[in-house]
Automatic annotation (TrEMBL):
Protein name according to UniProt: Kynureninase
Assembly and binders: Homodimer.
Catalyses which reaction(s): 3-hydroxy-L-kynurenine + H2O = 3-hydroxyanthranilate + L-alanine + H(+); L-kynurenine + H2O = anthranilate + L-alanine + H(+)
Pathway assigned in UniProt: Cofactor biosynthesis; NAD(+) biosynthesis; quinolinate from L-kynurenine: step 2/3; Amino-acid degradation; L-kynurenine degradation; L-alanine and anthranilate from L-kynurenine: step 1/1
Taxonomy of the source species: Bacteria, Bacillati, Actinomycetota, Actinomycetes, Kitasatosporales
The UniProt record lists the keyword Membrane: no
Co-factor(s): pyridoxal 5'-phosphate
NCBIfam families in the cross-refs: kynureninase
Organism: Streptomyces flavochromogenes
Source organism, top-level taxon: Bacteria
Gene: kynU
Family, similarity comment: Belongs to the kynureninase family.
Amino acid sequence: MADLQKKAHALDTADELGKHREKFALDAGTVYLDGNSLGALPAHVPARMADVITREWGELRIRSWDESGWWTAPERIGDRIAPIVGAAQGQIVVGDSTSVNVFKAVVAAARLSADDRDEILVDATTFPTDGYIAESAARMTGHRIVPVDPAGMAAAAGPRTAAALVNHVDYRSGRRHDLPGITAALHAAGALAVWDLCHSAGALPVGLDAHGVDLAVGCTYKYLNGGPGSPAYLYVAERHQAAFDSPLPGWNSHNDPFAMTPGYEAAAGVVRGRVGTPDILSMLALEAALDVWDGVAIEDVRAKSLALTDFFLECVRAYVPEGRVTSVTPEAHDERGSQTALACENAPAVMAELIKRGVVGDLRRPDILRFGFTPLYVGFADAERAARVLAEVLADLPA
Ligand SMILES: Cc1ncc(COP(=O)(O)O)c(C=O)c1O
């Protein structure tokens, strides 16, 4: 135990990203390993929100749509997210939930594809909302859904495939799927690639432009720390924007919204992914939260994330008796996101007790303990403590 604590100390001392921890409101008594579900609060956000509410809303009122930049917030904040996911400016718009953006993206992909392609492949292990919505989108556009395990996605794409919807990192196991390879295989088959980045954006390099992704969606309340229910985003590659045909053509995506004309005419660019009035308070909390990324390279975040998850597993192996937990997250670095998922008997009781003892992870029923590692505010001593407390809990709750 002492050896691993010493090692944790040495790793934390050498860790350049550790300095960002002070940017977050965290209490020393808790190890927060749930940033893959709800990111921690950046410490400066409350003061910024107080200003938004008291001055921009309270004093400037309606003038803030122009004077405080509220109207253009969806595109402006999209451009702040762009470098984190490897996208050039002008391709990301923020707004609505991930679920709603999945709908926009899947319908738009179906409309962008050739008429004789009638299948939409969907990650068979997907987060449920994507599957529900893709099924409805397929029904509306005259397509049929084909569930495919991401490992078989490349082989499954063929002349009938219009598009595929795939999760970059699996929400349950933490498995990272091969975004470059699957995207290339889909393109070779003449199909479009739509990616869900909820569990990868802010945790590892995505390379949307470099890998030629067509459309992508993601949430901002996990690794981007935007706050509960903060708006999601939609990426539309520049080459598709002129033909992007939104199924939700609200007035905010109109070419001249204040002309209030009865006929719809889509705005140029990614703005056509907007729908209605943006949820400004959440948007501006997200915009402020993104300040923590200034001067941070996503490659450094990835390197620390892999080191943290490796070290956590090393500690688990050292402290937890054989057979009590089994990692369902792949060991290989290129198959892993930024969480460790441990299958465990009696997982609900184990997680409840962990949380009582100050180690906050979460549970995916029936038997998965999830521990998310957010390199900007989680350190190696946290990983060691989490494994140690897990061993103590398991000792007190016999199998
Ligand atoms: C991979 C994935 N996709 C979609 C969603 C749903 O997002 P929302 O509730 O913002 O629509 C989540 C939520 O956690 C998710 O993890």
